[in-house]
């Protein structure tokens, strides 16, 4: 993943990074989301494998490409273009790079906390908060995990 990060830094040169978070900034206590989490959801009585499959499906259907994986963590990336802008409007413009890291952890028997950390990069431009979009994706993950 470091390779992709370096490639995008070189391609975008002088890029400003803004974290708006879907969460891995350290685990929160007592099953609560970490402070870096943009959004999170608890999923009960579903196998971790099914949760991971739901995350992969939802993010890939939304146009993200998987960019890395580690135990309990999935990473995705999406690069903005004209097609994205036509589909999402000003939410996702050409030249924008959105990286998402989703972390899954068991907080109690049978209950997993799924957190999401989002990094948006675009040369020198402050980007709007995308919290609503990622809440929608997390709701889809929860719903799909329950039926897999």
Account of the protein in words:
The protein is an alpha+beta fold and 148 residues long. It has one domain: 2-Layer Sandwich (TATA-Binding Protein), CATH 3.30.310.80. 33% of the residues lie in helices and 32% in strands. The protein has helices at residues 2-12, 48-61, 82-88, 131-147, and strands at residues 16-19, 39-44, 65-70, 73-79, 97-108, 111-122. Strands 1, 2, 3, 4, 5 and 6 form a 6-stranded antiparallel β-sheet that branches. The longest helix is centred in the C-terminal third of the chain and has 17 residues, at 131-147. The radius of gyration is 15 Å and the shape is elongated. Residues 1-29 have low confidence and may be disordered.
| CATH fold naming | TATA-Binding Protein
User: Strand portion, in percent?
Assistant: 25-35%
**What is the name of the CATH architecture?**
2-Layer Sandwich
How far the N terminus sits from the C terminus, by CA atoms, comes to 28 Å
The SSE order reads HEEHEEHEEH
Indicate the mean pLDDT.
76
- Tell me the total number of β-strands: 6
The CATH superfamily name is Kinase associated domain 1, KA1
What structural class results from the helix and strand content?
Answer: alpha+beta
- How many domain regions? 1
Unreliable stretches, pLDDT < 50, 5 or more residues?
1-29
How many individual helices? 4
Which CATH class?
A: Alpha Beta
Share in helix? 25-40%
Largest sheet: 6 strands, antiparallel
Query: In one word, what is the shape?
Result: elongated
Radius of gyration: 15 Å
């Amino acid at each position: 993943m470091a390779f992709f990060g370096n490639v995008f830094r070189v391609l975008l040169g002088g890029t400003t990074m803004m974290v708006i978070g879907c969460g891995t900034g350290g685990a929160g206590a007592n099953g609560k989301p970490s402070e870096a989490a943009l959004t999170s959801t608890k999923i009960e009585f579903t196998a971790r494998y099914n949760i991971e499959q739901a995350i992969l499906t939802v993010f890939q259907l939304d146009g993200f490409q998987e960019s890395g994986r580690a135990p309990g963590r999935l990473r995705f990336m999406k690069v903005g273009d004209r097609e994205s802008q036509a589909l999402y409007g000003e939410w996702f413009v050409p030249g924008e790079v959105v990286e998402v890291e989703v972390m899954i952890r068991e907080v109690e028997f049978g209950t997993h906390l799924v957190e999401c950390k989002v990094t948006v990069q675009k040369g020198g431009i402050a980007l709007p908060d995308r919290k609503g979009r990622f809440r929608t994706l997390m709701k889809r993950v929860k719903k799909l995990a329950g039926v897999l």
